[in-house]
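FORM 7B: Structural annotation worksheet

SECTION A. Query
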Amino acid sequence: QVQLVESGGGLVQAGGSLRLSCAASGRTFSSGVMGWFRQAPGKERAFVATITWSARTTYYADSVKGRFTISRDNAKNTVYLQMNSLNPEDTAVYYCAAHLGSVLSFLVTKIDVYNYWGQGTQVTVSS
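SECTION B. Predicted structure
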């Protein structure tokens, strides 16, 4: 089993920045992907960004490209999401998610691929 714990959410003004962290514990990661989804009120959970554990390849939703950066620290089993130039449309609960094992690249944005989920952290961007 893998436990994911997010931190770093909060309230920020439009144009501001936040950094989310997701610490994994339980099993040791040697392959797979770990990333972020978000769910705004009344909307479905949507892909934000993900990073492969071995190749350090990153993937982003079009809506966050150029503003968000995902990174990881293998020694700490932690993934980060640096969010810059935030706008009110980024307001959502952000969930960390992980898939252990190999996965085809065209599937990494699919919610069903991810086996493990954190409890979510609220990000609110005021205008």
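SECTION C. Observations
The mean pLDDT is 93. Residues 89 and 111 are 20 Å apart (CA to CA).

SECTION D. Sign-off
Analyst initials: ____
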